[in-house]
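hey
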């Protein structure tokens, strides 16, 4: 019965309101960024995300925002449980972020254009040269305390548990000399997991951990870089995993 009621609510309330809010946010961001990218690349998306969580009837709990410095740029790495991870991060992290996104997302009507105007980074891993251009682009985008947000698992978890972490976020942190901030996400797997479009209201939680320095490494030393990447991966994974709800461990 609960799933039936959720489907009716999603179809009659959530979807039409979410669609309108998405269109408005995308248009405002696209046009606004022509005049002030710093403001319009963040606030329309932040409000859009908060509205999505409110519409989803999802109580939100945030822990650890006091650990972040307003004018420091970071590489945020979070576990990826479900579609609502983006809303939770963008809406409640309390820090301007540029998303690192798949190239295919550029083709989403209106949203792809808004992301491009907002200075989000579309990953091109077709060659080492293309990857280097992505790093160079990221460096240009990190101004006035803006940061980068990445899901190192790459895709959403099918079980709610942590998958294998890819090294891209950690390589970027070393290249840009930025601290890594692990972020634990809980509950979004229950809201809208992989393969499902049915919205199930559920409490969700965002836990921000202490920044991990990613400096003092000689980038030209391949072995030192590989060792540091492994260390950063393990430290951030341990931080994220220790605060996952028991059923996700």
């Amino acid at each position: 019965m609960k799933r039936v009621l959720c489907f009716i609510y999603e179809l009659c309330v959530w979807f039409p309101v979410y669609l309108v809010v998405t269109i408005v946010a995308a248009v405002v961001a696209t046009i606004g960024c022509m005049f002030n990218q710093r403001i319009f690349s963040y606030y329309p998306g932040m409000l859009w995300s908060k509205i999505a969580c409110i519409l989803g009837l999802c109580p939100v709990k945030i822990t650890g925002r006091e650990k972040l410095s307003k004018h420091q740029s970071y590489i945020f790495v979070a576990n990826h449980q479900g579609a609502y991870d983006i809303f939770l991060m963008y809406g409640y992290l309390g820090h301007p972020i540029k998303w690192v996104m798949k190239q295919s997302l550029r083709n989403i009507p209106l949203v792809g254009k808004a992301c491009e105007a907002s200075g989000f980074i579309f990953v091109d891993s077709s060659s080492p040269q293309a990857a280097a251009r992505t790093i160079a682009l990221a460096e240009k985008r990190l101004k006035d305390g803006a940061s980068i947000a990445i899901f190192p698992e790459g895709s959403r978890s099918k079980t709610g548990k942590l998958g294998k972490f890819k090294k891209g976020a950690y390589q970027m942190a070393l290249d840009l000399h930025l601290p890594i901030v692990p972020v634990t996400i809980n509950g979004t797997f229950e809201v809208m997991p992989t393969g499902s479009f049915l919205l199930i209201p559920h409490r969700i939680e965002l836990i921000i951990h202490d920044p991990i320095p990613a400096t003092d490494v000689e980038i030209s030393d391949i072995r030192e870089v590989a060792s540091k990447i492994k260390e950063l991966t393990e430290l951030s994974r341990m931080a994220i995993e220790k605060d996952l709800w028991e059923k996700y461990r």
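The domain at 2-248 is CATH 3.40.1130 (Glycerol-3-phosphate (1)-acyltransferase). The chain has a mean pLDDT of 88.
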